[in-house]
Specification:
Structural class: mainly alpha
Number of helices: 8
Distance between the termini: 10 Å
Low-confidence stretches: 1-18
Strand content: under 5%
Mean pLDDT: 81
């Protein structure tokens, strides 16, 4: 009896090994010697069952969708042209939505500007005018401060000259008197008349005094003019500083209110806000258009009994032309045939594995 089972088991193993189980990395000839062979065959058997179940689950849907493609081909010429036109518009609109989706931003840093509505343009103009005016004020202030510094420099120079003239006058007077004393002493010893020396000394002192007087008078006149100009410049500087401070307060208030640090930043944020707002509106219109197109396509398909039309939208590019539908039909045919072949292969393989395992169990029981 054992010889009988061994003969048929070995005969079957050789035949199966060559034809059906040639792709399995399991040596069934060693099933009697290696217990792991039967275990691996059982695992293979279960995996095949799982694969068949998964493939079989998708097959009805694929066949139904294939049947829908065939029904679409039976539509009238006008209906097919309508479907092609709707498919083209739908595909183009999807691409447009994808493009706008990258541009649309929600909860951006500029959304707060929506709270100010129509007042933004007025605020922009005010900020621009204030910044331009502030720039002019800065230029005026810089000019006035440079003029003040120049007047202060001239004032200090005149005061320095006045002190120098006083010292020079004293020095000349002392030198003249000293010279007069020396000359008088010399003339007295030589018994010459000292009138000439006295007269010369007196003339020198008088000339020096007149020079010092008129020079100092000119300096004082110039200092007086300088003081008036300096007072006027300081008054203008103070007024300009008040303008500067008022402008700065206004700008600081505007900057804080609109969360910017300059007119340029304000314009950039306002532009970004408007661009994003327009993109959002356009994105909503595109979505509305897509919804309308879906409704039109669904209505057309429902007329021929196609209610589950998701596969149409998933493969919308194929429905834009007759050639596209033909390619989609061939794609489904190949896919269904491929699944059928895989199921048959797994089932045939499992049938063989079942017999091998059954023979193995029988041989084990005979022992």
């Amino acid at each position: 009896m054992k010889a009988f089972f061994a003969f048929f088991s070995n005969l079957f193993k050789r035949r199966v090994d060559k034809k059906v189980l040639s792709g399995i990395d399991i040596d069934i000839d060693k099933i009697d010697e290696d217990p792991t062979v039967s275990q691996r065959l059982q695992e293979r058997y279960q995996n095949n069952l799982d694969s068949v179940e998964a493939l079989s689950a998708n097959l009805p849907r694929l066949k139904e969708e294939f049947d829908s493609i065939q029904r679409i081909e039976k539509l009238s010429k006008k209906s097919k042209e309508d479907l092609e036109g709707l498919a083209k518009i739908y595909s183009e609109t999807l691409l447009e939505r994808t493009d706008f989706k990258t541009k649309v931003k929600f909860n951006t840093g500029e959304d707060y500007l929506a709270n100010y509505g129509d007042s933004i343009e007025e605020a922009l103009n005010l900020m621009k005018e204030t910044e331009e005016y502030q720039q002019l004020v800065k230029v005026d202030l810089a000019y006035l401060e440079s003029e003040r510094d120049e007047l202060l420099y001239q004032k200090n120079k005149l005061l320095s000259n006045d002190k120098m003239i006083n010292k020079l006058f004293v020095l000349v007077s002392v030198l003249a008197l000293s010279l007069f004393a020396l000359v008088s002493l010399f003339l007295a010893r030589t018994q010459f008349d000292i009138v000439v020396a006295f007269s010369a000394t007196l003339i020198l002192i008088v000339l020096t005094t007149m020079w010092a007087y008129f020079t100092r008078r000119l300096i004082k006149t110039t200092l007086s003019k300088n003081a008036k100009l300096l007072s006027r410049v300081i008054t203008l500087i103070n007024k300009t500083k008040i303008k500067y401070i008022n402008n700065k307060k206004l700008l600081d208030y505007q900057y804080k209110k609109y969360k910017v640090d300059s007119y340029y930043m304000f314009t950039v944020r306002w532009k970004n806000y408007n661009d994003n707002k327009n993109n959002i509106n356009r994105y909503k219109k595109i979505n509305n258009s897509i919804s309308a197109l879906i409704s039109d396509i669904e209505s057309l398909l429902s007329n021929i009994g196609i209610n589950d039309d998701s596969f149409v939208f998933d493969n919308i590019d194929y429905f834009m032309s007759a050639d596209g539908r033909k390619k989609l039909k061939e794609k489904y045919e190949n896919l269904i045939d491929e699944i059928d072949e895989k199921i048959k292969k797994y089932e045939k393989e499992n049938a063989v594995i079942y017999i091998v395992l059954a023979n193995y169990k029988s041989s084990q029981s005979a022992k």
